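README: folding subset

This subset contains proteins for which both the sequence and a predicted structure token string are available. Records are stored as plain text. Below is the entry for GCF C-terminal domain-containing protein (142 residues), shown exactly as it appears on disk.
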Amino acid sequence: MPSDEELALTEVTEFQKSKDNVLEESRKMFEDVRADCCDIRKILLKFQEWKEKFPDSYCDAYIGFCLPKLLNPLVRAQLVKWSPLENSTDLKEMPWFRAVEEFSDAKKPSESKRDDDPDEEVLPRVIEKTILPKITGILRLS
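--- output ---
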């Protein structure tokens, strides 16, 4: 019968193997997708252009409310290696965070400037819909 120490070492080894497999598979996730369709900055730039050229259409489409759901899989892919309980990159330093923050703070043309611009809430909504569930899941497992 194996000792607890041997069992723990086996479990750690198996966990590390599984983790390495997940990381390897995550690198392949978007390899068959056009670069401009999986780069958050490029995606947000297209929405910014739409907003600047056609502010009424952009506003009528409620894009600020749709973006967190659209960006969710792309953000989650960047978070595969991230763990708030380990020494990880600070969220504010991650490419997705900087891109969404820049988009949320982008200067709006005067004709589309609104007091209740939903784009200002994109970053908090992405955090609410993507980051908080990940943190909650990690805390439940620990």
